[in-house]
Specification:
The structure is a single chain. This protein is α+β, with helices and mostly antiparallel strands. It is about 20% helix and about 25% strand. The chain has one domain: Transposase Inhibitor Protein From Tn5, Chain A, domain 1. The protein contains 4 helices and 6 strands; from the N terminus they run αβαβαββββα. A 6-stranded mixed β-sheet has the order 1-2-6-5-4-3. Helix 2 (about 25-35) links the parallel strand 1 and strand 2 (about 40-45). The protein is globular and about 45 Å long.
Length: about 170
């Protein structure tokens, strides 16, 4: 994030967008990306189902990122090219690490604005992060194959279908 900001300072007339995979899903990075002096935008694939700030203080149940985005209406169902892959580790069981066939797939796209709760270990030290989340989920994957799913956190706007489409295109 700091490198992208430094580059943005060198070319102020250009919009820079940091695109990162789930290894960058670190709360400190998200918090830094939403600072008031933001000079660059970002898209980070989420690997954690983060807790959201509860708008109803008396509830005992936390809201979580994935369920919040799944509750949003489907904005569009485009067809995308799904890239095949081989298993990275033979004993790995997580869906994102399983082999997958190359194919054309229909995905459901949802988007919502969320406020992420700061982690307990850093509560009070980091601010809550309000940003946007875009969920892309394969509708009907081939039997026995792993469905595509991207949960993307971003500082880019999601007010229109075209803006949401731009987020998915940047990531894909």
């Amino acid at each position: 994030m700091q490198s992208v900001r430094a580059e943005a300072a060198r070319c102020p007339g250009t919009q820079l967008v940091l695109v990162a995979d789930s290894e960058s899903d670190i709360y400190d990075v998200l918090a830094e990306g939403m600072e008031a002096r933001r000079t660059a935008d970002w898209i980070i694939r989420s690997c954690q189902d983060r807790a959201l700030v509860d708008d109803l203080e008396d509830r005992d149940v936390l809201d979580y990122l994935r369920e919040e985005v799944l509750a949003a209406p489907v904005l569009e169902r485009p067809t995308i090219t799904v890239r095949g892959r081989t298993a990275k580790v033979a004993c790995e069981e997580r869906g994102r690490r399983q082999p997958r066939l190359s194919r054309q797939g229909v995905v459901a796209v949802r988007a919502v604005t969320v406020t992420l709760r700061a982690p307990e270990r850093r509560a009070g030290q980091l601010a809550e992060v309000t940003g946007n989340a875009v969920l892309v989920t394969e509708v009907d994957p081939p039997e026995g194959d792993v469905a595509v799913e991207w949960l993307l956190l971003t500082s880019l706007p999601i007010d229109t279908v075209e803006q949401v489409r731009l987020v998915t295109q940047y990531y894909n």
